[in-house]
Design goal:
This protein is mostly helical and 213 residues long. It contains 11 helices and no strands.
Length: 213
């Protein structure tokens, strides 16, 4: 891995675990095993490093938002989207959490976050609508938007909930699997039995991949 790419990857992991405001450039350089001057060679400012991470973040969001439900496999396609969404939330959770430390106007996130959130609501609503069309989800159509919003809240803040409770949330902790099972409590009672079984199986598979990461 190129040094620049390794800096971005390790910085993102440290910011997630320790908080953006708590990680100094000296700490990051020591963690990487490089001189602080080498760090500055690749990123002239701390803001430049943050913007490099934010570019990855924006790319991941746009790729996930391009996903659409498959009417021929509504459960499988929902599970695939969930896997992408949880990976995104897990890999970049400091961006959601630490705005007070880095400010709200880092490019390319500035101004786009509300739109991304609204499009996530739209995306989840389409998936739930597809499940309802297939007879797998018994939910009033006029309340699907509420279900999409509440699902987003649980998934987005699930990892931070465990962190605030003093539980580990990093790779191998099982926090992704627990968060996904928690979101399922919103609507499992309105799923067809075979759909609920498949979603539980899919969540276990997503959780296993997160444990292995």
């Amino acid at each position: 891995m190129k040094t620049r790419d390794r800096i971005v990857l390790e910085a993102r992991a440290l910011f997630n675990e320790q908080g953006y405001g708590n990680v100094t450039t000296a700490m990051l350089a020591a963690h990487l095993g490089i001189a602080e001057g080498n760090l500055w060679y690749h990123f002239k400012t701390r803001q430049a490093l943050l913007e490099a991470i934010a570019e990855q973040f924006a790319s991941r969001i746009e790729t996930r938002l391009d996903m659409v439900p498959d009417p021929h496999d509504p459960i499988g396609s929902y599970a695939r989207m969930l896997g992408r969404l949880m990976a995104e939330l897990s890999d970049f959770r400091f961006i959601y959490r630490d705005q007070a430390s880095y400010g709200e106007h880092v490019e390319p996130v500035a101004g786009k976050a509300p739109g991304w959130l609204g499009r996530t609501f739209d995306q989840l609503e389409r998936y739930f609508d597809t499940l309802a069309d297939a007879g797998l989800l018994d939910w009033p159509r006029e309340r699907l938007r509420d279900l999409a919003v509440n699902t987003t809240i649980i998934l987005r803040y699930g990892l931070e909930h465990y962190r605030e409770m003093g539980e580990p949330t990093g790779a191998g902790s099982g926090a992704v699997r627990r968060t996904l099972h928690r979101h399922l409590t919103l609507f499992e009672h309105r799923l067809a039995p075979e759909a609920a079984i498949r979603l539980h199986e899919a969540i276990e598979a997503i959780g296993a991949r997160a444990l292995a990461a």
